[in-house]
Amino acid sequence: MSKTTILIDADVLAFESSIIAQENIQWEEELWTVHADMTVAKDRVIGRIEQFKDLLKADEVVLALSDRANFRRKLFPDYKSNRRKSVLPVILKPMKEWMINELDAQLWANIEADDVLSILATEYPNRQDKRIIVSIDKDFKSVPGIFYDYNREEYHEPTEEEADNFHLIQTLMGDSTDGFSGVKGVGPVAAERWLNDNGYTWESVVALYEKKGQTEQDALTNAWMARLLRKEEYNKKQKQITKLWTPKNYQTADKRRITSQVHSVTGLLDEDDSALFLQSPFDPLPNDMKKEEDSTETTTGTTDSHSVD
After folding, report:
1. Rounded to two decimals, what is the model's pTM?
2. What pLDDT digit, counting tens, does each position of 118-157 carry?
3. Domain that holds residue 153
4. CB under 8 Å, gap of 24 or more: what pairs does 231-239 form?
5. CATH code of the domain in which 268 resides
């Protein structure tokens, strides 16, 4: 009998556990501090993992975290820029470090946890194990395989065609949470209606963008923001993106037109390139950061100190 492996979005676990463990304390009339108990947060994470294992009858667990460096910002600097001023839980960074050190959480260079899970879910098409993505993020409907949304207690099993179609819907509607807008004035209902009427093709996507006074480059940028990397687009051994998604109808001339953009995020990237990082008013630039000599060795390789938010 084949085993079941659950692929857990550890960004969500780290955040929710850190929030639960945090408390505002008033010492005097005008003196407040923020207190956080990592024991509470760790217990929450362990409890969640055991809950998912029992529910999904899992034999193995893989956790994934996002790198601070993100290739999408090289293509679209405003990617997730709406989160720049967010105040994060005080123990979020040490919780992520604990998850790497003690729970073997995977953190791969220049990509997000969602990408890691998508790559793992789509690799080895003839593998024997059953893999289930566990998250609350609707973006996983664009990944062929099995996705369990534990907030809604829903299972999704999109085929490759259904996953590709959902990616086109996302390209049209954008994602305000991630800071890219899609076609002006088009939400999920209008996006799906347009594609149902005109076909789930790149030509249909571009037609709606141009109808609204936008360009094919706008469409392509949004498609790159929405697309989660799959197995053939990332080299696990080298920890490098090997290629970007391109529309099926693109010919040699079309691919040549986007060569510079593709090359900017594939292969070995400069770890100190400020374009990869979300800049907060309170953050130094990567080149100014003092790098710690210690690094954490995981099964995915060496994780530098700047890699965990």
Report:
1. 0.89
2. 999 999 877 788 999 999 999 999 999 999 999 999 999 9
3. 4-162+229-288
4. 231/119, 231/122, 231/123, 231/124, 233/119, 234/108, 234/111, 234/115, 234/119, 236/108, 236/119, 236/300, 238/268, 239/108, 239/109, 239/110, 239/300, 239/301
5. 3.40.50.1010
